[in-house]
Design goal:
Elements (H helix, E strand, L loop, with lengths): L3 E5 L2 E4 L14 E5 L4 E6 L3 E8 L4 H13 L3 E6 L2 E7 L4 H9 L6 E5 L13 H4 L1
Antiparallel strand pairs: 1-2, 2-3, 3-4, 5-7, 5-8, 6-7
């Protein structure tokens, strides 16, 4: 499930960055293909999605992550027992985002960008037009 709002012509505004759907972030406008269960970005919203998967780390570490993300202009778009979904305006910059994530424990944490790389691991580079 992805939180969207219809905007007409079969297009949807993504309201919250998804935790399990790659390639999109909050603020993007997408065309969704119900039959293939796929989304095509029509317009980028200028946000970077980050999924942080964690297990066995203290709750105060997770709270610190969320607080640090908000301190630099990010927001928490979703949370499960072992997942935090963050959204950052691209203007925050990748170094600032990665600095926050570098403060997480190396054991029990994996994170990934949700809309920065394609399926082959190549940068999508949409942010070059957004900055």
């Amino acid at each position: 499930m992805v939180a969207v709002t219809p905007v007409g012509d079969g297009h949807y505004l993504v309201c919250l960055s998804p935790g399990f759907f790659r390639g999109i972030a909050a603020g993007d406008v997408i065309a969704y293909d119900e039959r293939n269960k796929s989304a095509q970005v029509v317009e980028r919203g200028g946000n970077v999605a980050v999924q942080v998967f964690h297990a066995g780390i203290p709750g105060d570490t997770v709270e610190s992550l969320k607080r640090n993300a908000m301190d630099i202009g990010g927001r928490v778009d979703g949370e499960l027992d072992s997942l935090v979904v963050l959204t950052f305006p691209v203007r925050v910059g990748f170094p600032a985002i990665e600095s926050i994530l570098a403060g997480l424990p190396s054991d029990g944490v994996e994170w990934e960008y949700g809309n920065v790389f394609d399926e082959q691991g190549e940068p999508l580079a949409w942010w070059q037009d957004a900055t």
